[in-house]
Design a protein that fits this description.
Aspartate Aminotransferase, domain 2, 2 domains, globular, about 400 residues, four-stranded antiparallel β-sheet, homodimer, alpha/beta, 12 helices, Aspartate Aminotransferase, domain 1
Chain lengths: ~400, ~400
Amino acid sequence: MPFSENDVLALDAVDPLARFRDAFDLPEGVIYLDGNSLGPLTKAAKRRVTETLEAEWGRGLIRSWNTAGWIDLPAKVGAKIAPLIGAAPGTVTAVDSTSINLFKVLAVALAKQPERRVILTEAGNFPTDVYIAGGLADLLDRGHEVRQVPAARLAEAMDDSVAVVMLTEVNYRIGARLDMRTLTAKAHAAGALVIWDLAHSAGAFPVDLAGACADFAVGCGYKYLNGGPGAPAFVYVAPKHPPGLKQPLHGWLGHQAPFDFAAGYQPADSIEAMRTGTPPILSMAALDAALEVFADVDLAAVKAKADRLFDIFTSILATRCPKLELLTPTEQNARGTQVSLRFPDAYPVMQALIARGVIGDFRQPDILRFGLTPLYVRHIDVWRAADILARIMESRAWDRPEFKVRAKVV
Amino acid sequence: MPFSENDVLALDAVDPLARFRDAFDLPEGVIYLDGNSLGPLTKAAKRRVTETLEAEWGRGLIRSWNTAGWIDLPAKVGAKIAPLIGAAPGTVTAVDSTSINLFKVLAVALAKQPERRVILTEAGNFPTDVYIAGGLADLLDRGHEVRQVPAARLAEAMDDSVAVVMLTEVNYRIGARLDMRTLTAKAHAAGALVIWDLAHSAGAFPVDLAGACADFAVGCGYKYLNGGPGAPAFVYVAPKHPPGLKQPLHGWLGHQAPFDFAAGYQPADSIEAMRTGTPPILSMAALDAALEVFADVDLAAVKAKADRLFDIFTSILATRCPKLELLTPTEQNARGTQVSLRFPDAYPVMQALIARGVIGDFRQPDILRFGLTPLYVRHIDVWRAADILARIMESRAWDRPEFKVRAKVV
């Protein structure tokens, strides 16, 4: 095997990111390789939610909108996310869900392109993005088409019918990463606007929205940002688009003076115009606290370690489990920080793994998916996870009826 | 004075709702008359959020989507809200914010009325409802008009141009209550569909959506339902409208099989088709727990006690503070469970009250607003609150510079 147990222990001993693991409240007996689906609890979030619950809500009551700064949390959280995704200050806010935010920016983008009717996306993009685009197209009823083409044909599909190119940087199934800079430039050359979904990017590796000249972006708070189950999402609007956009879901907290309760809507002259209703403060507080961990994280170092974890994991499996087909690109710049493996009985294999304390997830119809999240996953963890997976495959330990019963959420 | 201190203490001694106060975790030294803006922390929510945070997220991690039932929380919460608003089982789910849910049902309703262009609402409705309707009208760009008329002229304004009547049952400023049954019947007679916003109704008094034959309703989780700051909202679709509505914000969790990750959207054949993205679980858990309090609450008794609290509060002030103008209707069926008083210097008066431990709120430009929430507010509380307010008025204790500095959230 390319990496021995001693090899990986030695890597952990000199790992500059090792110190971050202590920021997390990880359960005993679990190797958690599903932080790309739900990031784990941080000690900061645990403290903070308890404080928000008991002191701010319990004792402060309504006063906490001012005294605990609840009203400014979306902007505060946005300001913490901005440097992680290459966004200028004041261009990101935390609000609603990724799906809802996508609807907002897509509606704004289409309104800027009245002569064009195509929303171009990758075939195999995360379904909700395609559903949302379809829902908006149906609502507008002006002949918009959601055109889905394979990644390799995206550039050539960018013609003068394309209003908006809507892409997820890292594919949720196979972990392949699109070239944000090149595709954005090509889209702009074709006169299209570009929206990036950073669900599997933000917090996983350096993203440079400003450098790529992206127009809009959305992303998820509960994956690599560790904001907790269903944490608020975020939205980015490039400074080249005037602040104070009138997005269609304009609610009172996007108004320039919400507490004037004015009869007419006037958008805030800032990214806060993307807000709609009252944010879920307990969930927002967890995200705000979880982001403290990122204050002195070097995302380039995170990606470098994730790449090494990838090499350890895949090299062990390549040797011992040739039947597991690696779907994720081996070229570092062509992938995010997950590993996807194909196997016909992927579902029971994953259940067998989880029963042994290695948590990844399954994606239809035959994919084993593992998130490599270097802030709390050690080299020895992925070495052991690969070893356990290999033993399951070698012994066919997955081939038991109880592992084939599908849960509601897979 | 009509009620002496002994009178109200005697009322508390025999109050059948008194036992519910123990379900709440109220701070010392505060009389909380702002539960119509943010309900207080319940002991159940405190326990539950801590468990969701530490056991479900912290130790269960991604597994809790199944093992802790996170995926079914919106339906479970909806099932608890349904009996409070006269809704049949399976017609309510908890999701997103009131504003976002209003957008969904308004879009569905307008699509059912292709020949009509007017969205009729009350002048002085909560601004975000009007903003959302305007945002949808602008997006559709088909000549829809949001027509705002005074409450007394709503019925006569229901002509054959009206596609949808969109009303908030209880006005947030003055606490006046519209006649849901009569207005719904008149709207239907005119061929319009009806959406009710129950923000200041749900949990405050008995609501009978089914009896009134309402088409759609939305409402708020963080006011009378005590779900916590920014708690998820709810949405109701009457059984007469086929389940599986394709609302425009259709995201993956509204799909009939979300984890198939199918390329095409197929709405769930249930109220869950109103879902969009991933719900904020910490906030949802708080709402779910808070609703346990309502399991054996008689909302008719709640309204009856609120009416008595109203009488105690307003009779004291009518005697001692004639300059405070009562804006809320004195007829019991014509109001919800808040009291609104007008005074030119309402803002500093409210600050002086809060400084003395009586928490209500201020609404532009000159309104003192108090929520009467019988599950945790005693007769003696409103008696003392009225006495403190009267003393402030009598001594002009509000007339100090520090009470005139406006906070960000008022």
